[in-house]
Amino acid sequence: MSSYQNKILLKNISKSFDDMEILRDINIEVNEGELVSILGPSGSGKSTIFNILTNIINSDNGEVKINGNLSYMYQKDMMVPWKKVIDNIGIPLIFKGKNKGEAREEVRKHIDEFGLSGFEYKYPSQLSGGMKQRANFLKTYLTSDDIMLLDEPFGALDSMTRRKMQNWLLELTKEMKSTILFITHDIEEAILLSDRIYIISEKPAIIKGEIKVNLSNDRNGNVVTSKEFIEIKKEILSLM
């Protein structure tokens, strides 16, 4: 276990819907400042874990501990089509009691950092899929920059845009102090982005293994062909 403060703890979590068992004895921990991925096949119950963490549903048994404030980024961009990008991003700030002008001022502080300069006064329909996800990511960050749950945020993007967004997220997380729990079914994405990876099975989902990603923090596009990367990928495939 890391010497850093524990931010998320799921202990012996199980969940069934009617007669279908979804999760069985799930144990996951995420420490402060980590990016941890949950890697598993589509439909395996990964999003159910997030729904339990955010109290959308309750687990049948087990223990959930969250040390901090959560924000949740869905795969779908969730942008209101008739609002400009800057006002879409600022919605969480409005909910926190800021007026429109104050919310816009706060959003502007992060526009360059999130690669949205020049797009803030456009409408969502004028943005590419990648730009929409940058805006969605900033909206999630403004909801809470403490603990962020990212549910396959790049899953709907084409492969080239997805790789660009992965590299962008890698650079961004170097500057952020957030703790991130990331859902994906893409093995290379999990290795590229993560400090640690939990591998889960098909339903009923169990933890099949935990992999520590021993790669340098400077992960460029060439890292996917490195010996270390390929060895981690082999280890993951042996567990799936």
Report on the structure:
This protein has 240 residues and is α/β, with parallel strands linked by helices. The protein folds into two domains: 1-69 and 146-240, P-loop containing nucleotide triphosphate hydrolases (Rossmann fold); 75-143, no CATH class. Helix content is 34%, strand content 25%. The protein is built from eight helices and nine strands. The chain has helices at residues 46-53, 85-89, 91-95, 100-111, 129-143, 159-175, 187-193, 227-239; strands at residues 6-17, 20-31, 35-39, 61-66, 70-73, 147-151, 179-184, 196-200, 207-212. The chain has a six-stranded mixed β-sheet with strand order 5-6-7-3-8-9, with helices on both faces. It has a three-stranded antiparallel β-sheet with strand order 2-1-4, with helices on one face. Helix 7 packs across helix 8. The longest helix is centred in the last third of the chain and has 17 residues, at 159-175.
Q: What structural keywords apply?
A:
Rossmann fold; 2 domains; alpha/beta; 240 residues; 8 helices; 25% strand
Strand and helix map with partners:
Elements: E1 6-17, E2 20-31, E3 35-39, H1 46-53, E4 61-66, E5 70-73, H2 85-89, H3 91-95, H4 100-111, H5 129-143, E6 147-151, H6 159-175, E7 179-184, H7 187-193, E8 196-200, E9 207-212, H8 227-239
Parallel strand pairs: 3-7, 3-8, 5-6, 6-7
Antiparallel strand pairs: 1-2, 1-4, 8-9
Helix pairs in contact: 7-8
Largest sheet: 6 strands, mixed
Number of helices: 8
Q: Tell me the CATH topology of the largest domain.
A: Rossmann fold
Shape: globular
What's the gist of this structure?
The protein is α/β, with parallel strands linked by helices and 240 residues long.
